[in-house]
Amino acid sequence: MNFPENVKYTKEHEWIRLEGDVAYVGITDYAQEQLGDIVFVDIQAEGETLAADEVFGTIEVVKTISDLFLPVGGEILEQNEALADQPELVNKDPYGEGWLIKMKPDADADFDSLLDAAAYKALIND
């Protein structure tokens, strides 16, 4: 299982990676493994500004649909269009080509409240 050091994690199994003033958000390797084969990703919040922990979309596997929660508040700029035809990218490369959204975090976004790789690893190994 992969735990990149360059991202922050949530207890709901999302990750966020800041690149300048834009952040990429996706689900963790652990989450995609637990969910199984992803068949559909639905992001309805593009263009909206949401608070931390608000639902920004859903991810569908064969037997269930799971909500996706925003790690920090901000504006949803773009969804990963490649997932419309290839939702399995989330399974194959959750921290790379399988990213879900790009967002502009709020100026006061609290990245320090998120988990680092070691804390996230400890959380899922409990």
Automatic annotation (TrEMBL):
<dbReference type="InterPro" id="IPR002930">
    <property type="entry name" value="GCV_H"/>
</dbReference>
<dbReference type="InterPro" id="IPR033753">
    <property type="entry name" value="GCV_H/Fam206"/>
</dbReference>
<dbReference type="Pfam" id="PF01597">
    <property type="entry name" value="GCV_H"/>
</dbReference>
<dbReference type="InterPro" id="IPR017453">
    <property type="entry name" value="GCV_H_sub"/>
</dbReference>
<comment type="subunit">
    <text>The glycine cleavage system is composed of four proteins: P, T, L and H.</text>
</comment>
<dbReference type="GO" id="GO:0005829">
    <property type="term" value="C:cytosol"/>
</dbReference>
<keyword id="KW-0450">Lipoyl</keyword>
<dbReference type="InterPro" id="IPR011053">
    <property type="entry name" value="Single_hybrid_motif"/>
</dbReference>
<dbReference type="InterPro" id="IPR000089">
    <property type="entry name" value="Biotin_lipoyl"/>
</dbReference>
<dbReference type="GO" id="GO:0019464">
    <property type="term" value="P:glycine decarboxylation via glycine cleavage system"/>
</dbReference>
<feature type="modified residue" description="N6-lipoyllysine">
    <location>
        <position position="63"/>
    </location>
</feature>
<protein>
    <recommendedName>
        <fullName>Glycine cleavage system H protein</fullName>
    </recommendedName>
</protein>
<comment type="similarity">
    <text>Belongs to the GcvH family.</text>
</comment>
<dbReference type="InterPro" id="IPR003016">
    <property type="entry name" value="2-oxoA_DH_lipoyl-BS"/>
</dbReference>
<dbReference type="GO" id="GO:0005960">
    <property type="term" value="C:glycine cleavage complex"/>
</dbReference>
<dbReference type="GO" id="GO:0009249">
    <property type="term" value="P:protein lipoylation"/>
</dbReference>
<comment type="function">
    <text>The glycine cleavage system catalyzes the degradation of glycine. The H protein shuttles the methylamine group of glycine from the P protein to the T protein.</text>
</comment>
<feature type="domain" description="Lipoyl-binding">
    <location>
        <begin position="22"/>
        <end position="104"/>
    </location>
</feature>
